[in-house]
Prior knowledge:
With 128 residues, the protein is an all-alpha fold. It has helices at 6-31, 41-69, 74-97, 100-126. α1 runs antiparallel to α2 (41-69), α1 runs parallel beside α3 and α2 (41-69) runs parallel beside α4. 27% of the residues are buried.
Amino acid sequence: MMLTIVPIYAAVLALAYVVLAGRVIAVRRTARVSLGSGGDKDLEQRIRVHGNFAEYVPLALIVIAFVEAQGAPVWYVHALSLVLVAARAAHAYGLSTGTLRLRVLGVIGTFAVLVGASLSLLRHFAGI
């Protein structure tokens, strides 16, 4: 089965990744730090926002793609994908601004997607 839904969200998230990387690069240039954070708190925060995105988004996209490939309802694949996009945006904004509520919402949304997609796959393959 050809994937037709997840690639759209992967593209949106890839662009977000580039934006987050650009935010790191901008402060690296200003602070003249090529490796690590150099003790710059703003740079350290931006590195973590970018890093956290890089840690969770690829795995989430993989499990959602597997769900789509197994023939899940279109609405369910869109729902998982939209929640992932919203959750990662909330988390990035919350971590960048110190808004704990949005950061927590982002974590909960991301974990809900990972758990929901994973359980869907287990149910499909193992009859759980």
